[in-house]
Design goal:
By secondary structure, the protein is an alpha/beta fold. The chain contains 16 helices and nine strands. Helix 1 runs parallel beside helix 3, helix 3 packs antiparallel against helix 14 and helix 11 runs antiparallel to helix 12.
């Protein structure tokens, strides 16, 4: 294998993108995003490429997210490097979302944050028994970006709100049941699946359907009614009250989890999802997230969340404001304000 962080090549009619930064569980940086974008643009009009396959090298997982340490260091200054990363990453997400050829993403192992951003826009999203999916951003003072404002509110019921606020981790049975992933293929069949995709590059959905199996019963189904009832509100305070009033063991567990998250992030994420549900295009959502991201990475809570979880690893962040009442509508309005025209996110031409 090459030592490039992303390996791109054409094999028998398939444009192949392999994430190749295994020690970092393929956490995305700007160079990786730009390499993927360059390949996808080159293949878009190339008749020799009939479909695209995204996978990863090594055993540890598909993609654990973005290069959070770099983003935090940049956010501690003028955030210019973080914004440049978001610009490249979100353009890649949008390019995949609107891509004219079928894309298959094989998410074998961990898929979180930025990894969700480069798999959710794919037409065919294959999970295995090793898949662990999460959008854990509220635990580091961020929000579920990379298209979370578009994808999460379009999941069944209020499951997207629950996932965004709690950062819950799901296995394949649940991700397939919710439509986050389209198929389940056991990990011991992945090599055979890839070989068949190379043999039949024009019709990846038929190939994957032949290999797909049953992911088993979805544990979350037992809690779907409660999620849809308790997470249906437009303020985080009302969700807290509903969980407390419900009083069941499961509801109180969710409440305890939420109380460990950044109050600012909880309110930002809920507004992001409720706003994203009303938008007419994925591009509009990415423009919202870009404006939001460039501001949130400069806030106390993001800097403190990264310190607590990634740098010092004491897992004891001191959020400020420390409770929901301190996060005002004025604060949220400022974070969500549109950027001036010359700073706005735009898709690739």
């Amino acid at each position: 294998m090459s030592d490039a962080e992303v390996i791109t090549r054409i094999e028998n009619g398939v444009g192949r993108i392999t994430l190749n930064r295994p020690k970092a569980i393929h956490a995305l940086n700007r160079t990786m995003c730009e390499a993927m974008t360059e390949a996808l643009l080159a293949w878009r009009g190339d008749a020799a490429v009939q479909s695209v396959l995204i996978d990863h090298a090594g055993e540890r997982g598909f993609c654990a997210g973005g290069d959070i340490r770099m983003i935090a260091e940049s956010g501690a200054g003028d955030a210019s490097e973080a914004k440049a990363f978001f610009l490249a990453e979100y353009r890649l997400n949008h390019l995949m979302f609107d891509y004219p050829k079928p894309i298959v993403a094989i998410v074998d192992g961990i898929v979180m944050g930025g990894g969700v951003g480069i798999s959710e826009p794919a037409d065919i999203r294959v999970a295995t028994e090793r898949t662990t999916y999460a959008m854990p951003e509220t635990g580091i003072g961020l929000f579920p970006d990379v298209g979370g404002g578009w994808f999460l509110p379009r999941l069944p019921g209020q499951t997207g709100v629950w996932l965004a606020l709690t950062g819950a981790r799901l296995k394949a049975a649940d991700t397939v049941a919710l439509g986050i992933h389209t198929h389940f293929v056991s990990s011991d069949r992945i090599d055979a699946l890839k070989a068949d995709l190379m043999r039949e590059p024009a019709d990846p959905s038929s190939v994957v359907a032949r290999h797909a199996g049953d992911a088993g019963p979805a544990p979350l189904s037992a809690h779907r009614e409660a999620i849809d009832r308790l997470f249906a509100f437009d303020t985080v305070e009302e969700i807290f009250q509903a969980l407390e009033a419900d009083g069941s063991h499961w509801a109180l567990q969710q409440l305890q989890t939420l109380k460990t998250k950044s109050p600012q992030s909880l309110k930002v994420s809920l507004r992001q999802i409720r706003t994203g549900a009303t938008l007419n295009s994925f591009a509009d959502n990415m423009a919202m997230e870009y404006a939001l991201g460039g501001r949130v990475v400069r806030t106390h809570d993001f800097q403190e969340g990264v310190r607590a979880v990634i740098v010092d690893k004491d897992n004891a962040p001191k959020w400020s404001p420390a409770d929901l009442s301190g996060v005002t509508d004025e604060t949220l309005d400022a974070l969500f304000a549109p950027l001036p025209d010359n700073e706005k996110w735009t898709p690739l031409a």
